[in-house]
Write the structure tokens for this entry.
Amino acid sequence: MPIIDVKGTRLHFRFDGPADGPVIMLSNALHANLAMWDLQAPALVEAGFRILRYDSRGHGMSAAPLGPYSIELLMDDAVALMDALALRTVHFCGLSMGGMVGQMLAVRHGERLRSLILCATAAYMPPRELWDQRIATVRNDGMMAVVDAAIDRWFTKAGQERLEADIHNIRDAILATPAEGFCACCAAIRDMDQRESIHAINIPTLIIVGELDMGTPIEASRLLHERIAHSKLIIFPDAQHFVNVEQASMFNDVLLGFLKS
């Protein structure tokens, strides 16, 4: 269980793939953990990439210090992890909250990124009241109070039936997320607004979204595409938020095609 001390907290991480392969860093969604990328790992390793997965602050087996958190703090964690592991540059792929971290990383430390993959994410996530409500719900009733709604936002009904085992594991990850980590990250997302700063991103960028995504809809990805130079937008059919799980084969093909281009 590799754990490293960075930025006053402890981050859990995992490497897979050849030691000399180009590194792709994978950043998890809100109330998920590094296992959310299990369906990508074999394809990336087979293609010769070295995968660095990590549990964001407040998630999985990483520490969950008291808030407040910010997207800037989560970005600083990612940079500190790269520094601690002596990684000068990486490809960076983040989904939802992980993509929000990726946007800020590309703006402030673009020289550290070989490419950027933004999946089912947004530069701005109103309304504030929605995030305040989720925070209050979890503080009062725990993660069990939000797990069913999360699964329904993340997967179509057909996907839930087809991917029963995978979704069981994802559900367990949601329930295992520390309430403090969830609430502090909700506040970070609530307070984020990167709509103007992303104009500065100047590295090859792939944007992926599910056509049925309710949490970060197509319009949010179109805004990213319009404001990020050298970006490409791909919309996946028959998928909601967790496009990397619901359309894993298509996702892997698109991701590898982009990385190799």
About this structure: The chain has a mean pLDDT of 97. The beta strands are 3-6, 9-16, 23-27, 50-54, 90-95, 113-119, 205-210, 231-236. The longest helix spans residues 71-84.
